[in-house]
Specification:
Layout lengths: L1 H20 L2 E2 L10 E7 L5 E10 L4 E10 L5 E3 L8 E5 L5 E6 L8 E6 L6 E2 L7 E6 L5 E7 L25 E2 L3 E2 L5 E7 L5 E3 L7 E6 L5 E6 L12 E6 L6 E3 L7 E6 L5 E7 L11 E7 L6 E2 L8 E6 L5 E8 L2 E8 L5 E5 L4 E8 L3 E8 L2 E9 L2 E4 L10 E2 L2 E8 L5 E8 L8 E7 L13 H8 L3 E6 L8 H5 L8 H15 L3 E11 L1 H10 L7 E5 L15 H7 L7 H7 L1 H4 L8 E6 L8 H12 L4 E6 L9 H19 L1
Parallel strand pairs: 1-32, 35-36, 35-37, 37-38, 38-39, 39-40
Antiparallel strand pairs: 2-3, 3-4, 4-5, 6-7, 7-8, 8-9, 10-11, 11-14, 12-13, 14-15, 16-17, 17-18, 18-19, 20-21, 21-22, 22-23, 24-25, 25-26, 26-27, 28-29, 29-30, 30-31, 33-34, 34-36
Amino acid sequence: MKKILAVTLICFSAHCAFAQNVKKPFSPADVLKEKNLSDSRVSPDDKWVVYSLSEVDTAKDKAITHLWMQSLTGTESIQLTYGPESASSPQWSPDGKYISFLSSRESKNGSQVWLLNTHGGEAKKLTDLKGELNGYQWSPDGKRLVLLMQDAENTDKDKDDEKTPLPIRIDSYHFKQDIEGYLHHLHTHLYLFDIETKKLDTLTKGNTDEQSPEWSPDGKTIAFVSNRSADPEKNDNTDIFTIEAKTGGKITQLTTWKGHDINPKWSPDGKFIAYLRSTSDVDYIMYDQDILCIMGADGKNSKTLTTALDLPVATPEWSKDGKSIAFTVTDDRKNYLSQYNINTKKISTVCTGEYGIANEAAIGPSGWLVEMSTPYLPTELYGVENGTLRRLTHHQDWLDKVKLAHVEGFSSTSKDGTKVSGLLYTLDSTKSKKLPFILYIHGGPVGQDDYTFDDIRQTLAAEGYAVAAVNYRGSNGRGLAYCKAIFADWGNKEVADLLGAVDELIKEGIADPDHLGIGGWSYGSILTDYTIATDTRFKAGIAGAGSALQTTMYGSDEYVLQYDNEIGPPWKSQEKWINLSYPFFHADRIKTPVMFMSGLKDFNVPTAGSEQMYMALKQQNIPTELILYPNQYHEFTVPSYQVDRLKRYIAWYNKYLK
């Protein structure tokens, strides 16, 4: 009896251990566990990093952001803020004694600057300002802040009529924007705030908008970005200026490129400014990439540094010793860290691999802190020393109990010979059998699918689908010519690239040709419409926040500047507009059942685009549904809606592909 009992206990223990180690496939509800890390800032003594972490409060059905502090040794992790109100945009005071942040807690006037003593105690509200506070930065001596603040709205109205909104008067070229809605054309200006006296001084004013303020190391000057052309609504011509850090200070224009100049960063000695410049010098072009540049503090001797890369660069940051400038590079499914050596004038790669780096900050004389994601891990913080990555934070450890799809790169050849890169998601890494297949298309179009965490494709792969991400022409990371190839020619080369990738995966025995699905959001939805109007092989489609009758988008969405510069007004180029609308005008060629989706407050690609295609299919008795989400913009912010959308994806694809 004792022997039987012992064997039974051993078997029971083994079963419990096995049960604890079993991983469940990624599911729609898992997106509620994902945490969004951003805004990382290294302390002046190089011992700590403060950052924002957004988590979902399921009871309130919203994401709340709080501040965390992590030691750069990786041994200590401290949550700094709590409660129902978010805290964001953390910064260190120059002496390291305080952490400042933005929060709307205890305020009727929106976000204010708060101070938190690093030695402990409650946070204290520093500002109480009218107008929307969009950003701030400490002066080098820690006595002042430069504020980036939007004009306060004119709230003068009859108090007896408060329930009746005033009419919206519009007289501008750019009059609507997603999330912001109809624009009141309140301008954003620079202000100086004295921390001791709490006095607010105006630096800039008038019918201009400023952004990206950066103090010079001596605290006498502030660099900023502004479009001060004759008609700023009709071009992308931002330039870099400096202003003396005092009321009535002299403003000096440093750059004159007709494209955009952005992201000024002072060298530690104040002699140079690194910045980004567009490649093209036209009024506006969607398909472009930024180049790293450097100039003297007076704007003279400007030089481009990364033109030969022919790849987009971003987030320039000086090393603390001033000997190099780090920046991220977008390159064929990767986003890696590089640096330019001031003395040798050479570019070198700091670290690269099958991951994506989104932001970096200097540690010590030559080290770096990066925000990084992999196909199997949402963003965490890593230190980079001598090209080696060292993980610092562990907020995504909930994934230890989740079975994720295998992700690997693949390539295909389009019918015109173009080489195209993609990513394939499958639960079975051996690819031992043909699988029902979903082509899920990225938006943009300028952007790329890369080696970072993708919860949508992970969800679909967990259902047993082979899921492909394809960087069609129009994507970045493959050079400027590849990106510009679709200029005024939408739905042509991209569709050839997408179909070429599908054909390749069928040929390799991965995708089941009789069970093909397609879908995407935004431009991915637009390409879904283009593709199913071209090829009838797809048995199920999902099109979210898209459009097909493009003429109706002119004046309805926020892209009029692109339309006027790329296609021309409809009355001047009617044939082009009709050709670009072929999914709608050839809707009788579509045989694919499609579920259309939209957020009802989407001003980026308004709901009408989905409604029109829904009706075109409904009229022909093709199975279709239209799912509308109340109070949602182009990107959904309500967590339960994000889960609902994924569940509907699964149900629709399962209905027609399994």
